Amino acid sequence: MTEQTSAEKAGGTAAGIKGKVYGFNADTQCCLKQAMLEIGNWVNGKAGTLLGHIKMSVTVNGFGMTMNLTDLDEGVLCQGELDPCPEADFNFMAAVLDVDHEELEHMMIHALEDCGADVKAEVDHDHHHHGGPGHVHVPGCNCCGHHHSE
Amino acid sequence: MPLSDAMYVYILGGFLGAGKTTLLMKIASRYIASGKKVSVLVNEMGEIGVDGATIRSGGYNAVELPDGCICCTLATTMIEALQDIKNDFRPDVILIEPTGLALPGKVRESVESAQLGEDLLMNIGVVDGPRFEVFLAKRGDFLKEQLGCSDILVLNKMDVTKPEEAVRISEWAKSELGKDVIPVSARNGTNLEKVFAGMRA
Question: In the predicted model, is pLDDT for residue B115 greater than 50?
């Protein structure tokens, strides 16, 4: 029997998505913050409280800003600055307790897609849509029913 | 300040969102302001690293180890990374930030096995003041194990922690861990001098 990892011991899970954000400016930043808050609220609803953090960096050549959400009352806190630019890289990650890994990843993808920012996430849709071929749902999947036509 | 030829290694442990990165950047700034070379090794659970960007944007030399935990799944990778940092950068100070789901005592064991020849190896535990009670209720055993190895125990976010909560945390730390806490706010810098003094910084 293999020894538990510390994350398993703590009952935590982490997921990350990276990609490009186009036309980055203050409005885009607000949209991305909204995506983070959506995940925070989802975790809060699922786990009863948000224990962990949801983070995003937006960078050009490795330098830029990060946004951090650990407390829903406090909201998303920003560190560093990034001037408006036509294209930037983003890294979006969440490490939280008491939620399912696949669900977390799935919710993060859709929070990004729905936030209003022009983003292109590097994701494997076969994986993220419960093993279905391409961008489709399998029966019983209702975690993002608002987003796709059946 | 450390002696000019010495190398100090600090491991900052604590739960997710406790303020480890904020504290780390304050410590790094302190050392850099005194002319020391600082390297940062930051670890994150997800496949994607975020804190490396924060740290690099602050002008610090940072190595990021994402997608695993340096106390278990990435222990060997961390040892190799530390040896590379030492050989390539020759830092005066190495700051290691494990993921918030790591057990810093195990990270310490790995650092010791790396045989870096450090002059000081210290664990700094960071407690999240406002969320301590909920962590304790949900993950009490883990919290105790995570903080139990701390040489310095920092009670962070004092700017948003109620005084009665701070008293309760101090009492818990004393009775359960046998340790005193240093109340600070890493965000606004309050009381960090006491932490620096304990670090011999």
Answer: yes
Q: What would the two tokens of residue B141 be?
A: 């055993």
Tens-digit pLDDT profile for residues A18-27: 999 999 999 9
Interacting residues of A64 by C-beta distance below 8 A, sequence separation 6+? A57, A58, A80, A81, A82, A88, B53, B57
Closest chain B CA to residue A66: B54
Residue A20, burial from CB neighbour count under 10 angstroms (0-12, 13-18, 19+): middle
For residue B138, how many C-alpha atoms fall within 13 Å in the half-sphere facing its CB? 18
Q: Taking residues A56-83, report their average pLDDT.
A: 91
**What tokens does A34 get?**
């909204």
**Chain A environment of B63 (Cβ under 8 Å):** none
pLDDT tops 80 at residue A139: no
Give the distance from residue B35's alpha carbon to the nearest chain A alpha carbon, in angstroms: 23
Note the maximum CA span of chain A.
52
* N- to C-terminal Cα separation, chain B: 5
Interface of A with B (CB under 8 A): 3, 5-7, 9-18, 49, 51-53, 55-57, 59, 62-66, 70-71, 74, 79-80, 91-98
Q: What is the pTM of this model?
A: 0.86
CA distance B22 to chain A (A): 10
- The tens digit of pLDDT for each residue in A100-127 reads 999 999 999 999 999 999 999 987 544 4
Any idea how long chain B is?
201
